[in-house]
Amino acid sequence: MCGLAGLFIPKGAADARADIAAMMAAMSHRGPDGEGRYESEDGRFQAGFVRLAIIDLDTGDQPFVDRDAGRVLMGNGEIYNYLELRDEMRARDYPYTSQGDIEVVLALARAYGDDFVHRLNGMYALALYESGSHRLLLVRDRLGVKPLYWARLPGGAILFASEIKVLFASGLIAPAIDESAVSAYLAHGFVPGPATLFKGVRKLPSGRTMEVDSGGEVRIRRYWRPAPEPSFPDAPEAMADHLIALLRDSLRLQLRSDVPVGVLLSGGIDSGLMVALAADQVERPLETFTVRFQGGDVDESPLAALVAARYGASHNILDLSAESAAAHLPKLAWYCEEPLNDAALLPNYLVESELGRHVKVALNGTGGDELFAGYGRYFRLGVERAYLRLPAWTRTALIEPAAARLAPMTAWKLARAAAFDGNRGTYLHDHACHFPPPMRAFIGCRLAAGDKVQEALFDEFEGPAQTASLYADLNAYLPEDLLTLLDRTSMAVSVEARVPFLDHRLVAAALAVPPAVRTPGGRQKGLQRAIAARFLPDAVLDAPKRGFVSPLPAWLEAGLAPLIRSVLTRPDTLARGWWTAQGIGRLLARPRDHAYRLYSLLMLELAVRVHVEGAQTSTPPTEPLEAFADAA
């Protein structure tokens, strides 16, 4: 894990100077172990890099320069299959200067040109500059584990970096809010790519390359998309064996490191399977970590201990205090830049902070739900099934119009039930949306609702409806929410988070599983549970699914609510028209019902205050939420 930044000035474009030192300082948390710079002789390519040393601690500094081919390379992340690729490339006599993973891209680029991307297995964001043709190639990994952002300057130059705030630190662009992105955030809980919350700043979406030629023309090409493996086995038992083999091999690759590696072990199936399949691939006992929040309603540590004991792991229980969000949220808004409505942000940050005291690399189970149908939104709710048994005219002509007059949100929830039989992308969106049209009216929002990104993604996939739902989440919710949250919370404390379930080979295999096998009888993660039964105790298999449980409603009742009211009802804030004081009052009147909506609005407001209204700094704010309330 590292951070990269640069400026590419096409021929004929206006000269510019990026403050590379400031850009590097703004992402120093991503790479505290070293830094490097490169500038072409004509100054039309300027780059900076900060390093978190994981593989090849002594000779892995970047940028890498292939002087014979005139290429300069920076890479954030890991190329997990680098040993196999280096063996393949020895016949090409590439003059390696390191023993690590990233430099192999230069050897592959010599041999295959831009098609080198098809040979990589890993999580990565790459910047490859070719001096001879004066050309820039940006690459983002297949699933979007590692981020990459870019912006075109008024004079034609291209600015790029691992984080948005690093672009602002260049001194070449000023942060400004894109209101269409605000509306998209309210609808999705994240800003769907390639847009960002900020005008002129774009994400490079997952599985894409971006070429900028010498004249400044930008071409974005998709080199990979999630698709079912074509040669997948036919028999359920063979399917399970194949999936196990792929996860085992993913773990083999992702356990490669020259620094300590740990596994975040909850009481769930995903992390339990990782431990089961990784334990016999390491020479020493696997280091596992379970988090226990003091005073929390859920304690999975006994289940985790069962798994750790079965596989002889060196098990650690981390006791964390569920502190008030007020002390951390402004800082997390700085790290994240764009708001997320995912209230697991703070628990994840606390977990990563504690992990960082013990290991530098941590494996986790992100992606298992998207591969094996672990979310309730992949299945029609029982109450919806009962409601749809009523005649259509009764529902649409009587019940829903009457409900709309008395309880608009109830009417909207009733109407969304039918979407399951049509475009399930609509159903996915509506079951995760915090601010549908009735709720926008409730808070006094003047922004119209826009497109639902899951609808287009569902239509894009050719295959069973359930698999198309997984595809939609793999392309939207996973990279824009879960992986962004994971990258920012882990990088904030200089920990490399790895995700073995998101090996692209395993993704393709999981999408090839027929729904009747994936979720037999409509049971969430039915196939994965059957696989796990070979390896895990019954107590783990039978435990209900749990995620990070945020104490947000309790925080509101314990004193956070007045702070939120003060922050969200500042006159300058209300003048934007995104909500009204009366609307915030309505939400606060029912904190248990609306805690997560209030959190969503608070993180949006903090993103604006920290990144647009506040001064650009190379370090996160140290003030708690109270300081923002006092200024309201």
What's this entry about, in short?
Helix content is 42%, strand content 15%. The protein has 632 residues and is α+β, with helices and mostly antiparallel strands.
At the first level of CATH, the class of the largest domain is: Alpha Beta
Got a strand count? 17
Counted by DSSP, the helix tally is 28
CATH topology of the largest domain: Glutamine Phosphoribosylpyrophosphate, subunit 1, domain 1
The proportion of residues forming helix, as a percent range, comes to: 40-55%
Architecture of the largest domain, according to CATH?
4-Layer Sandwich
Total domain units = 4
Characterization of this structure:
- The chain starts with a strand and ends with a helix.
- The longest helix has 23 residues, at 591-613.
- The mean pLDDT is 94.
- The chain is built from 28 helices and 17 strands.
- It has 4 domains: 2-222, 4-Layer Sandwich (Glutamine Phosphoribosylpyrophosphate, subunit 1, domain 1); 236-376 and 470-542, Rossmann fold (3-Layer(aba) Sandwich), CATH 3.40.50; 380-468, no CATH class; 552-630, no CATH class.
- The chain is of the alpha+beta class and 632 residues long.
